[in-house]
Amino acid sequence: MKNLLFLVLISVCWAEPHPGNSSLEHERIIHIQENGPRLLVVAEQAKIFSHRGGNVTLPCKFYHEHRSTAGSGTHKIRVKWTKLTSDYLKEVDVFVAMGHHRKSYGNYQGRVFLRESSENDASLIITNIILEDYGRYKCEVIEGLEDDTAVVALNLEGVVFPYSPRLGRYNLNFHEAQRACLDQDSVIASFDQLYDAWRSGLDWCNAGWLSDGSVQYPITKPREPCGGKNTVPGVRNYGFWDKDKSRYDVFCFTSNFNGRFYYLIHPTKLTYDEAVQACLKDGAQIAKVGQLFAAWKLLGYDRCDAGWLADGSVRYPISRPRKRCSPNEAAVRFVGFPDKKHKLYGVYCFRAYN
């Protein structure tokens, strides 16, 4: 009975100002109401799809369980968007808004805004999407002592491709792998991107770095050199390795581009240096590996002529398998890294649109 009386007294009692200290005049002990207002943050869609160069809206709205209006009117609403890293160990600041104050961060500056279609709309608009924008974003809404969050994934249409440098197989530490992808108009792929590529038929026996620091490879056709012919298809995981000392290949991801990819019609075959100059003379640049893969996968580009690319490799894209041109499968065929000074090939160029 005493316990019940004590609880009743607490439920109806508010703290009064301390009589001996005027500085506490406006302070109050917080009165907790079990059935009081509760802030809820909701993402209407958990996954949004877009492409490089496009615009996208990441949905986020906030409500109160026991109040019809969006805000109480006594506290300013603070909206904060962050991006979750692939290993979930930290968050990257994207955008913060409170009242009339707005701030964006890093390479998001000038590209992110709140939609604010209603007083409870905290949706984020991202313009001119870049490859690095891919990932999971957290929308956090704070009002007084209440806060809640929702997570939205931004997926990009694109293609995953394996990459190794001129030095050959297993020569990249993690940091070199990141730079290698950037040099080829791409970024290091995530596990989700590699998994989707495997589901679409990507089969590659060499292990490569992924963005979370793991080393994996996709197998659709089990065989002895790739885990054994009696194993099941899947993405094989080597685990996490030393990013500075361990060396593997890398899986890169690229998306569509704002430009024209083409094979340069030239009267003669060219050395590498001649190929670079021929593209420049045509108002373009020698194409990168990522641009070749994007043109092949996303635009259906098909050409049976081997040509130089910016990294010194020679490749050609086949979308329509036929005799003497990848008869068994659609693929980007890899000739190798020939002698730049003496071997003669065509060249693939890329002209960016202004």
UniProtKB/TrEMBL annotation:
Pfam families hit by this protein: V-set, Xlink
Subcellular location: Secreted, Extracellular space, Extracellular matrix
Signal sequence extent: 1-15
Keyword terms of this UniProt record: Disulfide bond, Extracellular matrix, Glycoprotein, Hyaluronic acid, Immunoglobulin domain, Repeat, Secreted, Signal
Ranges for domain Ig-like: 37-155
Electron transport as UniProt keyword: no
First-listed, main subcellular location of the protein, grouped into a coarse class: secreted
Disulfide bonds: 205-226, 304-325
One GO CC term on file: extracellular space
Top-rank lineage group of the source organism: Eukaryota
Domain Link residue range list: 159-254, 259-351
Similarity field: Belongs to the HAPLN family.
PANTHER family: AGGRECAN/VERSICAN PROTEOGLYCAN, HYALURONAN AND PROTEOGLYCAN LINK PROTEIN 1
Function: Stabilizes the aggregates of proteoglycan monomers with hyaluronic acid in the extracellular cartilage matrix.
Protein name (record): Hyaluronan and proteoglycan link protein 1
